[in-house]
Amino acid sequence: MSIAASQVSQLRARTGVGILDAKNALEEANGNEEQAIEILRKKGKAQAVKKAGREQGEGIVFVASDSGKAAAVMILCETDFVARSDAFKSLGASLAGELLSKGKAAFDAVASEKIPSAVLELGENISLGETTLIEAPVIGSYVHLTGKIGVLVGLSKGTAEQANDTAMHAAAMNPQYIRPSEVPSDTVTKEKEIWKDQMKDDKKPAEIQEKIMQGKEKKFREENALLTQPFVKEQSQTVEKMLGGDTVLEYVRLALD
């Protein structure tokens, strides 16, 4: 069976073995991680086994950008103490830079080497979370002071300041989509069921209730779309108006729950 690079990375993070050993063990175990660990232990190759169940509730989002490209990498760990360490921050900054400069394919191999080494150095279960790489004529980024939220934005034109402001807004307001039209119809349908239930005792005529439903849908779509949200730094205008006609080509928000 085909073994994903993420599976190899996770197994290496838990055992400290090399890429080839991890891949071979996973192939022999048909992708079952626990069985792969047993195979490695029997061969005497597993240096340290980290429990997969150990919660990784901490971490940081790292961002790197240059010349029309930007990368964001989420690194997870178990404790805030490790997340604040220089070694952890160095790992994250390095991986974000690697993703930016080398692209996704080469990045997976680098991460598979660096993360297991960090596990052994820092003594915690550390793993790679979400990663993303975008390209656009104008790039903006924002990382919250806590490091737990990172946003990348790509614009068709305009200024880096506008792109950065858009990213900062998205970090604060968490829009799920760029435009109202992008909100999925099934998501709207679920909301409509709630609205209908709320209006079941309303005595208004059916045509009036339908107009109310249309108004609710319009508001719901706008509240969940980046461009139609009131801009956090100037509530009297939307993000779209702040951008002055620029098109948002890319929008990615990474956040630790």
What would you note in describing this structure?
With 257 residues, the protein is of the alpha+beta class. Among the domains are: 5-42, Orthogonal Bundle (Helicase, Ruva Protein, domain 3); 54-135, Elongation factor Ts, dimerisation domain (Tetrahydropterin Synthase, Chain A, 2-Layer Sandwich), CATH 3.30.479. The chain has helices at 5-15, 19-28, 33-42, 80-83, 86-122, 160-173, 185-198, 206-223, 239-243; strands at 58-66, 69-77, 127-135, 138-143, 149-155, 230-231, 234-238, 248-255. It has a three-stranded antiparallel beta sheet. Strands 4-5-8 form a three-stranded antiparallel beta sheet, covered by helices on one side. The longest helix is centred in the middle third of the chain and has 37 residues, at 86-122. The protein is globular, with a radius of gyration of 23 Å.
